[in-house]
Amino acid sequence: MRGVTCWMWAVLFLSAWDLVLCHLRRRRSSGADDAKKCAYTFLIPQQKITGPICASATGPEPDKDRVTRMDISDVREVLSKQRREIETLQLVVDVDGNLVNEMKLLRKESRNMNSRVTQLYMQLLHEIIRKRDNSLELAQLENRVLNATSEMLRLASRYKELELRFSQLAAVVNNQSVLISALEEQCLHTYGRQELPAVPPLVQVVPENIPPNNGRFTNEIQHNNNNRAFPRGSRMDAPPTTSTLAVPPPTLNTEGPFKDCFQVRQAGHTSSGMYLLKTEGSEGLIQVWCEHGLDNGGWTVFQRRRDGSVNFFRNWENYKKGFGNIDSEYWLGLENIYNLAKQGDYQLLVELEDWVGKKVYAEYSSFHLEAESEAYRLRLGTYQGNAGDSLSSHNGKPFTTLDRDKDAFSGNCAHFHKGGWWYNACGQTNLNGVWYSGGVYRSKFQDGIFWADYGGGFYSLKSVRMMIRPID
Ligand SMILES: [Ca+2]
Asked: What's the CA-to-centroid distance between 219 and ligand 1, angstroms?
């Protein structure tokens, strides 16, 4: 009987212990498993009472294995002590949990810091590269500046050399001038003043119209468009050239021949260009430039200057037969002009263009030449226009070339004016003179292409045309 009781107590105790442990585990798991409640069913074996229940008056015999209230209170104390420890441990665990969170935060912060550091590092790297590039660029610029400086120094030195050379040449020129003056003086003493060749008077006309001027002499060294024109100063001694009209350009209009450009215009041709003419009384064909773009067209151009590409300092034979290029500068020939103008009553139009592109005109109501036996004497009608009348002073004058002096001057005007013209002594215009670039020119004897009433004797025109057409 006692054994059964003891066994029952033991079972009770173990169950209670398990219950305690169960609660401990629940607390440790922070209530995550609330569902798992600590529940126990105490199975107490059914006792079979087979005899009378006796109660001992002396009490049960002391059993060393018997659980007493003291034991239970001890266990409770132990249990409460363990609970406190568990609470302490829980506290520690909580603190540890905070630490872990802090650790996590710190780790996160650290990651952020790392990322920021990486970013800063990249920026720094980029900055370093950029600065290196800048420094390279700076070095290149420095090199260029150095090169430019050295080039500048080289040019400055070259300029100094040229300056020196120029001053030397200027000194030579001065010496030459002095020498020339001395020689002239000596010449005067040797031959006497009266034996010196006469010099024609300069044009004294004060022009009504003065073309705009660029304010400087452009021909101190003569500018020619090509090398065919003579350099200034060499013409005095150079013989006149002898070649005549050049080979016709390929754009020649082969229809015709017509008697003049007015007939070409009447035949329905409206574009200016090269045409074939056959004048009455002449045998051969002649090529001319027909101007149809001016004053209703029909103008036969017999003289044209525009770029200095043709030398006009030529002999009688050249001026008689003609020379130059039909689509450029040319002289149609005195014989051709004579034959043209004797076909009827013709008027003359002189077109002048200055160096700013302004064009002026001089028109003469009639025009023809006399025969070669009269040295192609010029016959003009009355003037009208806006260029001024500079050609009337040549009216009635025969034609003069370097090799055939027919002018009214004691010397040869062709020699001084370097062309061929109906010189008087020598006259107010020189449209077959030297083509100077730029307008105002320097010349001892006024040999430029001048029209005294438009610019005076020292303004060489840019382009000139002389053309005829039957009188309306
Ligand atoms: Ca003469």
From this structure: 28
